[in-house]
Design goal:
Layout: H1 2-9, E1 22-23, E2 26-27, E3 37-38, H2 42-51, H3 64-77, E4 80-81
Parallel strand pairs: 3-4
Antiparallel strand pairs: 1-2
């Protein structure tokens, strides 16, 4: 944040608020609010492992029935955003 603020200050622009829209090659959906989380798909998980200079690992994909149940429970708690193909990136 500091680096971005200093960059814009050098151009005479005052920054009042910054919002992270992606982390490396992983896009963060705008509906993901502070304190919420989402499960990463296999591609995004591979990207994060690679950024950390780690060997990518297979990502567990639960059966659809179990995934639907988890999603319903998470929606009740309001702390989870489901990754149902709504996240940009392949």
């Amino acid at each position: 944040n500091r680096e971005v603020r200093r960059l814009w200050e050098s151009q005479g622009v005052t920054v009042s608020r910054l919002k992270r829209v992606r982390y490396g090659d992983v896009f963060i959906p705008s509906k993901l609010k502070k304190g919420q989380w989402m499960e990463l798909g296999a591609r995004d998980a591979d990207v994060v492992y690679t950024m950390g200079q780690l060997e990518p690992k297979p990502v567990y994909q639960p059966p659809k029935k179990l995934a639907d149940k988890r999603e319903r429970q998470a929606q009740k708690s309001g702390k989870h955003i489901a990754n149902r193909g709504k996240v940009r990136g392949k």
